[in-house]
Specification:
Alpha-Beta Plaits; five-stranded antiparallel sheet; four-stranded antiparallel sheet; 39% strand; elongated
Amino acid sequence: MNNLNNMKNFILASLVITLCVIGINSAQASTDRTVTVFGQGTVKFNDDLATADVTLSTTKPSVSAAHDDLASIFTKVQGALKSLGKNTLTSSNFSIYPNYDYSNNSAVKNGYTARYSLQVKTTIDNLGAAVSTLVSSGGDNLTVDQFEFSSSKNSSLTAQAQKLAIKDAYQRAVNYTSAAGAKVGAVVSISEQNSGPIISPKLFAASTAPSGNGIQIPVAPASDSIQVSVQVSYLIK
């Protein structure tokens, strides 16, 4: 009987101690002081990649004739770019539609137009040669719509911007806590304040294809930037 009472007393004492410890930890957690700050990191860089949006088109009396002629033009352009190297050619859209003559107040079918939209991806230092090759191989059947510049190092550049954002946030926290006579403690939480790094590819419009006289178009893309914003909470010591 005494042994049973002793066991009950021991269990009861253990529960009391456990509850006291939990209460102390909860009280400690509720009284932790924190400082929450925002940080921003920006990395500037020069683009090294270029994408040219290109359209091939032809008009012929029949659907099959328009299709076959466009296929021939594409094969010629594809071969010319392949021989140049450093290029990737991808398809984005293809269409064939009838043309109508409305000059006599009636719709008279006047052949068919076939259009093939492509993207040519290359390096910026190879863009001038790529455009000249496109023009010489596609001739009057080719239109260069626009250029888009970007970087092949987006991942590493984003990581740099993230580190700068954290560094900026920490310095802000130091400034606030120092002014209040305290010190920055451990990180409590980190969150990005946007859906992802802000990357702004530069778009450059281009008119219809130039004459194709062998002169390469000079390319001078503007510098770009990646921006990351974070919110960080620190303990205050």
